[in-house]
Amino acid sequence: MKALLRVVLIVDALLLLAFGLLFLLTPWASLYNAMQLVQVQPALIGQAFGIALIGLAWLALHASIDGALTTTAARVVGHVNWLTGVLMLVWLLGLRTPSLTGFGQLVSVLAAAVLLIVGLGGVRLAGAVRRRDRSRGAETAAAERADKQAAKARSTDRSGSGYGAQPAAEPALPVASAAPAAGQRVEPDLAAAARPGAYSSTGSEAGTSGTRDATAEAASPPRPPFHG
Question: Where in the sequence does UniProt note compositional bias of the Low complexity kind (predicted)?
């Protein structure tokens, strides 16, 4: 769309240059008579207006090359063109002033119509390009903000995992508290004996078993003597 706007600016520059040269040649009376146009009086006013139009033509041509000026220059030149076209139509068709012949009237009306169409088209196209540029700028700004927030979140996660993490506690080993069944042979636990405090626990178990044996012998009845 911006490429089309550049083409419109080039067309505007050519039109403005043509009208600027025509007004710059205001003192050339024979040229105006051949084109059946009314000569501007005094000639100084016509030449000054021609210089202004040539300046606008240069601005439009420069804006078609420089992308930073394309939208603004297209809006300015477009408004100048369509307003000039409306003014010419009002004077030529509404007020019938100046009084021109058939060919001069036709040329003037066609020139006014071209200025009106090209000017309005350039203004609308410049507005569309400007809205699209704004939407793209807003999307780019939103994407940049999202990237910054994501980078900040990642840095926060890395800093929290590096300094705020606590070492996990070792799970406590279950302690077997069930006593062995009666008549079951208890195997000595060598691994338990190798740990600190194993001797004290083994000694207490041996004393307990000796006490139980002595109690059992005292409670059993005396056996009869053996006779051969």
Answer: 167-182, 197-211
